[in-house]
Design brief:
- The chain is α+β, with helices and mostly antiparallel strands and 305 residues long.
- It has helices at residues 3-20, 27-35, 72-78, 92-99, 130-134, 141-152, 184-193, 201-207, 244-256, 291-303; strands spanning 46-51, 60-66, 104-110, 114-121, 158-164, 169-174, 212-218, 226-233, 268-274, 279-288.
- Strands 1-2-3-4-5-6-7-8-9-10 form a ten-stranded antiparallel beta barrel, surrounded by eight helices.
- Strand 5 (158-164) and strand 6 (169-174) form a beta hairpin.
- The chain is globular.
- The mean pLDDT is 92.
Length: 305
């Protein structure tokens, strides 16, 4: 299949996903982002993600990019997908590559607004600590200020980072966590120490299944903006949203989102997100998947049998 055909295929799937939520894709914002990576779309991991509550009118897309395809922020600037900025957020991905080996990239966009975010994945055998990442010159001081707090709760090895250029925030995705870290007592204590909305028994049960935990930080203060617990599963009923309207949307999306891997059940990634003032859930459906997600599914299915 040609690169142009892959662009059309992924774009059509995006329109199908958006239609399930009554959202319209902005062709002029989205197509240029897909076309910039038309040569790698066939083998990319592609995820379409929604959320509950006041975020229910949004749909994001995420696409992986091989390291050899180049820094996606530079590509976004070259293609006019995002404006240049003098803020440190514009230097962070380049600085990260100078201080840590990067095995893969990804970028996010919103279907109504286009490009907004990049990811840097680190080699599984050389995962940096939050303390090491804090030494990157353009990294927010809030990473250094919270490194001790993260370490106290066993959040040490960082699988990847993401940078949101519109909101000017950074996420650290922690992995390789022991089960004790995700127990109800530890999660309650962690949330309290981070100054975030406490969750109930349903949320605590959900958090225990997490394969990744990621806080959101910024350059303006030392506070933690959000904390998300991510769960990968093929169960289309996992997200316990509170409102009936949200539950209906999650159910419709989880059961009907497009996917391109024949002979397998739809692979989903859920997120419980806590801020200082609210709790909400996210749901991503993998349109294209890789062996990494298959291995995660197998590992976490065995833990939760």
């Amino acid at each position: 299949m040609s690169g142009a055909a892959d662009v059309e295929r992924v774009y059509s799937a995006m329109e199908e996903a958006a239609g399930l939520l009554d959202i319209t894709v902005s062709r002029e914002k989205v197509r240029p982002a897909l076309e910039a990576y038309h040569e790698v779309l066939a083998d990319a991991v592609v995820v379409f993600s929604m959320a509950s509550g006041r975020y229910a009118t949004e749909l994001d897309f995420s696409i992986s990019v091989p390291a050899e395809a180049g820094d996606p922020y530079r590509v976004a600037l070259a293609e006019g997908l995002t404006p240049r900025t003098d803020h440190p957020v514009g230097r962070l991905l380049a600085d990260t590559q100078e201080h840590c080996p990067v095995s893969m990239f990804a970028f996010d966009g919103e279907i109504t607004g286009g490009f907004k975010k990049t990811y840097a994945f680190f080699p599984t055998k050389d995962l940096p600590s939050a303390a090491k990442l804090a030494g990157i010159p353009s990294m927010p001081d809030s990473v250094r200020e919270n490194a001790g707090l993260f370490a106290r709760y066993g959040l040490d090895k960082v699988q990847m980072t993401s940078i949101d250029y519109n909101k000017k925030t950074v996420n650290l995705y922690f992995s390789e966590m022991s089960p004790d870290i995700l127990g109800p007592g530890a999660v309650r204590s962690m949330i309290r120490d981070m100054g975030l909305q406490e969750t109930g028994e349903v949320g605590l049960t959900f958090a225990r299944r997490s394969f990744s935990v990621y806080p959101t930080l910024n350059w303006e203060s030392g506070r933690i903006e959000r904390l998300c617990f991510a769960v990968i599963s093929r169960d289309p009923t996992l997200a316990p949203a509170e409102r009936d309207e949200d539950l209906a949307k999650f159910s419709t999306y989880a059961h009907n989102a497009p996917y391109a891997y024949a002979g397998e059940a739809r692979t989903l990634v859920y997120g419980l997100t806590l801020t200082p003032h609210e709790e909400y859930y996210k749901l991503g459906s993998y349109y294209q998947i890789s062996d990494i997600q298959r291995k995660l599914l197998k590992a976490f299915d065995s833990l939760n049998d």
